[in-house]
Design a protein that fits this description.
Structural class: alpha+beta
Distance between the termini: 174 Å
Shape: elongated
Number of domains: 4
Number of strands: 13
Strand content: 5-15%
Number of helices: 16
Radius of gyration: 49 Å
Strand order of the largest sheet: 9-8-7-6-10
Length: 553
């Protein structure tokens, strides 16, 4: 019994073991082949991105596996995987794997879809769930080629094919070819900087000198030449650095540094361009009669330089990924409180703008405003400086002076002179008329008086005198010349009165005691019109015929 069944049982056992072993070996081989091709883990956004980046590293370079993170129907998946990795490295975009979701059912709450957006620098780069796999979206795959051209313009992408992909050693974190590339870029940058500086300093400065702008060329353009050269070099650097495919942290640091430093030199350049523009405005201001333009040029220079610095700071902050919109919004809220606290300063600033636009006065004008009476020396952003006739200096806030009545004596075309000439009641009418005619002739013959309008008349019978109104205008540019002309006119009036025998009256009271009319002493006046006219003509010929009225030869 035992021998009957023992042998067949051994035979079946050996055969079964052989078959099972062969089956297991086949499974292992086929499983290994499967794992080597399509068995990478892309079940979550994290694993898909990890698979893409891991198998494109120099020490684990297997682009066939990296391509499995891309959809099958989007052309050559391996080429897409390589180009996307080059874009990320070239732009210095660091992918933080710690924050990528490991949830296979991740849902974008803003769009309510199974999408995971990878980085805000490339808004259209995202993964989406297809069946049970997380792959780069079709839209992202279609845009990779355009992103690659933007990152590597002017055919620099061809240089990437010359770079080794694996099998070489690192030295201090970089490959030997990367060190060589850095050296070549630095040398090229230095040479180009020297070339551009030479061209700007020599050619453009020489052209400006030939055009007659020697001061502008020597004092301003030489200071602009170096910043301009650097501004030209920086875009070249930004184009060449991505080709080196530096480690992502180093690349991110260099790209960010270039993006931050470039606005600094741009600020320096435009800051000095403002000086050039100010020199041009200063020349235009010299051609105008208004002296207020000369004060406006420094204010424009300061305003433009402040604007350039503010824009530069905003650009630097934006390149450092500071939320400029939030910052401006915060400043606007804080600016409201600041405006309330500094409303007087703001009022004075807009007051200065009104002065420059309306031009109620200019530097050098004699103005009267309220209790202030003096000459304008300077118009600033906050206050106007006025030199009083006591030689003191008064600073009036522009917000105050623009709300007051301003009497600008400097804008007068003519300067008025008005006085009453009082003569005694004993002066006969013929002598009064001759005196008035002589006064009119003085006005007509004086070089600084207005000839088309003046008033000289016997005007009033006062309590102790006959009053002659003497109302004339001087055509002189300033107060000093006005005083000189007044001096000359008054001397001529006194000499004419002396020539005609006119007595000027002054307040008097005459008391007559015990006298009769025939006992009163009478003054004898010359009443002959011809004689009086001859005296006036003799006076005018003697006094007004001289080179300088009112002065003896």
């Amino acid at each position: 019994m035992s021998t009957k069944y023992t042998q067949p049982m051994r035979t079946r056992s050996a055969s079964t073991h052989f078959k099972v072993g062969f089956l297991l070996l086949g499974l292992v081989i086929s499983g290994g082949m499967l794992f080597g091709q399509d068995s990478v883990n892309v079940a979550t956004p994290y694993h898909s991105v990890y698979n893409h980046l891991k198998y494109l590293q120099h020490d684990s370079y297997q682009p066939e596996k990296a391509a499995l993170s891309f959809p099958k129907d989007e052309g050559e998946r391996k080429d897409l995987a390589i180009k996307l990795k080059q874009v990320l490295d070239g732009r210095g975009i660091y992918i933080d794997m710690e924050i990528i979701s490991k949830d296979p059912d991740y849902l974008d709450s803003t769009r309510n879809r199974n999408r995971y957006y990878l980085d805000h620098h490339i808004p259209e780069l995202y993964l989406e769930k297809v069946d049970d796999k997380w792959l780069y979206s079709k839209r992202s795959s279609q845009l990779i080629a355009s992103w690659h051209r933007e990152t590597f313009p002017l055919g620099t992408d061809k240089l990437l094919d010359l770079m080794p992909k694996s099998g070489i050693d690192k030295y201090l974190g970089l490959y030997l070819w990367q060190y060589i590339g850095l050296f070549v870029i630095i040398l090229f940058t230095f040479v180009m900087h020297r070339v551009f500086t030479f061209l700007i300093e020599k050619i453009f400065i020489r052209l400006l000198k030939l055009a007659g702008y020697e001061k502008l060329a020597t004092k301003v353009l030489q200071r602009v030449a170096r910043p301009v050269s650097i501004l030209i070099i920086f875009p070249i650097l930004m184009t060449l650095i991505p080709v080196l495919q530096l480690p992502i942290k180093i690349s991110s640091f260099i790209v960010t540094g270039l993006q931050v430093v470039w606005p600094v030199f741009a600020v320096i350049f435009f800051y000095r361009v403002v000086d050039i523009f100010s020199e041009y405005l200063a020349k235009l201001a010299l051609k105008t009669e208004s002296t207020l333009d000369d004060q406006l040029v420094p204010l424009v220079r300061k305003s433009l330089k402040t604007f350039v610095v503010i824009i530069g700071i905003l650009l630097i902050l934006d390149n450092l990924e500071v939320n400029i919109t939030g910052l401006i919004a915060g400043l606007s809220i804080g600016g409201l409180a600041f405006a309330l606290a500094a409303q007087d300063t703001i009022k004075n600033f807009f007051g200065s703008l009104m002065i420059f636009f309306d031009r109620p006065f200019q530097v050098g004008d004699w103005v009267t405003s309220g209790d202030v009476d003096g000459t304008v020396e300077e118009v600033g952003f906050r206050a106007t400086r006025i030199r009083t006739f006591r030689n003191s200096v008064m600073y009036i806030p522009n917000g105050v002076i623009t709300n007051q009545t301003i009497d600008n004596h400097g804008l007068r075309v003519y300067r008025r002179f008005f006085t009453q000439l009082s003569v005694t009641y004993s002066t006969p009418p013929e002598l009064l008329q001759a005196f008035v005619d002589g006064l009119k002739d003085i006005v007509k013959n004086h070089p600084d008086t207005r000839k088309d309008y003046y008033e000289v008349h016997v005007n009033n019978l006062a309590s102790s005198s006959i009053e002659i109104m003497f109302y004339i205008f001087f055509s002189v540019p300033d107060w000093s010349n006005e005083l000189r002309s007044r001096h000359e006119i008054i001397l001529l009036v006194i000499k004419l009165a002396d020539q005609l025998g006119i007595d000027f009256a002054f307040p008097t009271q005459t008391l007559h005691v015990g006298s009769t009319p025939d006992q009163l002493t009478k003054i004898e006046y010359d009443r002959d019109k011809a004689s009086l006219k001859a005296k006036v003509e003799s006076f005018l010929q003697l006094e007004m015929g001289k080179g300088k009225p009112g002065k003896e030869k």
